[in-house]
Amino acid sequence: MYASLTDLTAYLGIDESTADDGLLTQFLARAQAAIDNTCHRTFEASADTTRHYDYRSVDGYTLYLDADLCAITSVVNGDGNTISAALYTTEPRNMTPWYALRLRDRLGLVWDGYTDDIAITGKFAYSLTAPAPVQQATIRLAAWLYRQKDNTGNDAPIIAGDVTILPARLPSDVYELLESEYIRRLT
User: Fold this and answer.
1) N or C: which end of the chain has fewer CB within 10 A?
2) What does the longest C-alpha to C-alpha distance in the chain come to?
3) Residues 95/131, Cβ–Cβ less than 8 Å
4) Where are the beta strands (DSSP E) in 17-117?
5) Is 94's pLDDT higher than 60?
6) E-assigned strands of 9-133?
7) What pLDDT shows up at residue 165?
């Protein structure tokens, strides 16, 4: 979770361990999902996942990823051979999240995605823990959802089962926390 129940109850100025803990926890999860959806990315990962790529993701020596990557556990080429970290660089080189892996030139290696998938295992997210502005946006949005639970006006979210349908726009301060750096522009 990008923010904790303790963070949210402190922000709301209510006692932790209230009858609303379950509801507050749901609102934290819904706020996180809304932020991920708005930003077109996930901001933290606690477990490795494996994604598979083929020749359509390759341009020369570069393999373009379909999601942010912040930690790499293994890279297995389409021919089944593991590619060690010494044989590739990340793009960008000195910061995460990474959007591509580039094989080092002059080593004779090529991405082999024609016969089988290239498998990348790691943490596919913006970072290992959500950046502070994303944490604050999560707390603020969860608090807004909580305060709207009794609102019968047009700006209240609609909750149907496990789905929350938000108004057309997030609260402006939440959007401002995310807008400058964290929203991925899709092409």
Assistant:
1) C
2) 65
3) no
4) 49-53, 58-59, 62-69, 71-76, 88-91, 98-103
5) yes
6) 49-53, 58-59, 62-69, 71-76, 88-91, 98-103, 118-123
7) 61
Is 68 in a helix, a strand, or coil? strand
CB 111 within 8 A of CB 63: yes
Classify 147 as helix, strand or coil.
helix
What CA–CA distance (Å, rounded) separates 96 from 18?
38
CA distance 48 to 109: 25
pTM of the model: 0.81
Distance CA 29, CA 141 (A): 10
Using alpha carbons, select from 26, 13, 19, 64 the residue that is nearest to residue 142: 26
Residues 87-99, mean pLDDT to the nearest whole number: 94
**Of the candidate ranges 65-74, 115-124, 133-142, the one whose mean pLDDT is the lowest:** 115-124
Chain Cα centroid distance, residue 51: 15
The confidence score (pLDDT) of residue 112 equals 86
Q: Which two tokens stand for residue 106?
A: 């002059």
Q: CA separation (Å) from 177 to 19, 39, 52?
A: 30, 11, 33
pLDDT > 80? residue 21: yes
Place of tokens 């942010």: 68
Section 138-165 average pLDDT: 76
